[in-house]
């Protein structure tokens, strides 16, 4: 199987950071009761206290003036890169232990810098249907896959730009793989 869920040269640095952070949290907390800790984590990509995830992943210019931030919108290549990264981040958010939490507007692609720019109106006319459909798909997958709701986290493989792990419970299992590199990953799944 050749896997390239989220990979492109342009999106590697941000997604490598996200993967490294997620895995370092999981790897370097061995003295805690990891099962209870991670089952109760609120998985957030945006909040009212942070810039919108789409703006962060689109490498918005945080040095611009307040007036410019109010008018700023991602365009062209950077908007495409931001969405590519967001799909990867969302996939991880819903596949990891804990509760995926969605800040209003992220499901339609709302942008914005720090408060008050991250609290924009919910614009139904600007809905990104592909993104909204992906949220629905991830929600249904999580709802109907017992391993995603209650499965233990078992690390399988982690390299720069690539992570795979297993979520296992008595009712089933799911093998999660994410590749943010520009190289194909050869995965062998044994019966």
Briefly, what is this?
The protein is an alpha+beta fold and 191 residues long.
Explain this structure:
- The protein has 191 residues and is α+β, with helices and mostly antiparallel strands.
- The protein contains seven helices and seven strands; from the N terminus they run βααβαααβααββββ.
- The strands form three sheets. Strands 4-5-6 form a three-stranded antiparallel β-sheet. The protein has a two-stranded antiparallel ribbon with strand order 1-7.
- Strand 4 (152-159) and strand 5 form a beta hairpin.
- Helix 5 (76-95) runs parallel beside helix 6.
- The protein is globular and about 55 Å long.
- It starts with a strand and ends in a 5-residue tail after the last strand.
Write the layout of secondary structure elements.
Layout: E1 2-3, H1 12-27, H2 34-39, E2 42-44, H3 53-57, H4 66-71, H5 76-95, E3 99-101, H6 129-144, H7 146-150, E4 152-159, E5 162-169, E6 172-179, E7 185-186
Parallel strand pairs: 2-3
Antiparallel strand pairs: 1-7, 4-5, 5-6
Taken from the alpha-carbon principal axes, the silhouette is: globular
User: Over the alpha carbons, how many angstroms does the gyration radius reach?
Assistant: 17 Å
Indicate the mean pLDDT.
Answer: 79
Helix count equals: 7
For the largest sheet, list the strands in their spatial order: 4-5-6
Instruction: State the share of residues found in helices, binned by percent.
Output: 25-40%
Poorly predicted parts? 1-12, 19-29
Reported for the largest beta sheet, the result is:
3 strands, antiparallel
- How much of the residues is beta strand, in percent? 15-25%
Structural class: alpha+beta
Measure the end-to-end span: 14 Å
Task: Kindly state the number of beta strands.
Answer: 7
| Series of H and E elements | EHHEHHHEHHEEEE
């Amino acid at each position: 199987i050749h896997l390239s869920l989220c990979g492109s040269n342009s999106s590697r640095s941000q997604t490598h950071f996200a993967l490294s952070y997620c895995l370092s949290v999981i790897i370097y907390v061995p003295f805690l009761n990891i099962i209870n800790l991670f089952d109760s984590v609120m998985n957030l990509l945006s909040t009212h206290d942070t810039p919108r995830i789409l703006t962060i992943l689109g490498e918005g210019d945080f040095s611009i003036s307040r007036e410019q931030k109010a008018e700023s919108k991602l365009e062209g290549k950077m908007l495409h890169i931001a969405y590519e990264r967001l799909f990867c981040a969302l996939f991880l958010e819903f596949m990891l232990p804990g509760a995926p939490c969605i800040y209003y507007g992220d499901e339609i692609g709302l942008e914005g810098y720090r408060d008050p720019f991250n609290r924009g109106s919910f614009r139904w006319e600007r809905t990104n249907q592909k993104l909204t459909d992906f949220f629905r798909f991830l929600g249904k997958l999580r709802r109907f896959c017992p391993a995603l709701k209650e499965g233990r986290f078992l690390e399988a493989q982690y390299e720069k730009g690539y992570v795979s792990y297993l979520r296992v419970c008595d009712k089933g299992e799911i093998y999660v793989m994410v590749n943010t590199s520009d190289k194909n990953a050869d995965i062998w799944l044994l019966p």
